[in-house]
Structure formats: structure tokens, C-alpha cells
Amino acid sequence: MIFKHFNLAVNAALLIWALTLGFTIWAGWLDWRTRKIPNWLTVSAFTMGLGVHFILGGWRGALSSVEGAGLALLVLLPLVLARGLGAGDWKLMGAVGALLGPWGLLAFLFVSALVTGVMAAATVIWTRRVMVTLKNMAILVQGFFVFGLRGHPQMTLDNPGLLKLPFGVAAALTAVICFVISRRVR
Questions:
Q1: Per the CB 3.0–4.6 Å rule, which of 65, 80, 127, 168 could disulfide with 53?
Q2: How far apart (Å, rounded) are the C-alpha atoms in residues 84 and 99?
């Protein structure tokens, strides 16, 4: 009897990871190509996460899905308001939260911060903008003390002169890394 429940849990986890991987890889590809993550994709993934969790865990599963999405949207809202993260990226993480739940989302956020940092460092080095980036970082730190938690007026997604990363690609890489880790830590 215990083995039957274990197999069901493993199959449910694999289903959720398959959906998360498919969604994030698709979003990453679209973000790479168009620099946009469309609403139809994020809303569909959110709905799919909510539905799968409801089917697998009833109302408790659905609540976990909503908690994951809400946590992602709440934690990342300051970055969106400061124009340091795009709304499509924000909704992407909300959908990831709906798929993985709150605890899975926290791990995903941690790994995605590392992946995004590595991507940013590689991009800065590749484009030979190390000194410009260091000066911009100094301006951001100084701006924090002047403007507080509000974004710096020139250090936003709206500034065409700044480097921008397709966060969907970072999310896709993060999903692959987290899936591999989850398979190793059983």
C-alpha cells in the first residue's frame, strides 16, 4: 500500500515537472525571439497549474497552487514597480508558482537569481561593458539612498541604452536545473 502511494506521488511530481519544463522552455524560446512573454501563455500555465493541483490534491492542492502564484507575484512586485522586471516575466513567475507551489517556487526563485546573475555577468563580459555596468551599479546604490525603494529614473527597462536579459531564458534554464536537482535528491 505504501509503494502505491509513493508511485502516485512520484508520477504527480513528474507530471508537474513536465508541465513546468514545457511551459518555461516555451516561454524562454518566445522571450529569446521576441523579448515578450504573451499573456495567453502565462494565463494558460497558471490555469493548468491550478487545475492539475486541484485534480491531484483537491481544494488543498488548489490552495497550494494559488499560494505559489501569489507568493511569486508579491515577492517580485517591487521589481516590476521599479521597472527592473517586465510584467511578462512577473506573470511567468506567477505561473511557475501555480505549477510548483510555494515551497517549490522559493527554490526556483533562489536558483533563478543565480542563473540570472551568471547570465548577466556573461553578457556584460561578452559585450565588453564591464566598466559601464560597474558605474551603473554605483549609480543604483547611490540612487537607493536618494530615491529609496523606488527605481532609479535612468536604470529601468525603459532605457534603451541598458543591457537587458531575456528572463524567460533564465527561467527555462532554472527549470531544467531544478528538475535535475529534484531527481538527484530523492
A1: 65
A2: 24
pLDDT grade for 143, boundaries at 50, 70 and 90: low
Rounded to an integer, what distance in angstroms lies between the CA atom of residue 138 and that of residue 159?
17
Collapsed DSSP state (helix, strand, coil) of residue 119: helix
Cell representation of residue 60: 488543498
Contacts of 56 (CB under 8 A, 6+ apart): 12, 15
Ranked by mean pLDDT, the top range of 5-19, 114-128, 172-186 is 172-186
Query: To which H or E segment does residue 83 belong?
Result: none
Q: d(Cα 83, Cα 156) in Å, to the nearest integer?
A: 5
The CB-side HSE value for 97 (13 A sphere, CA atoms) comes to: 23
pTM score: 0.82
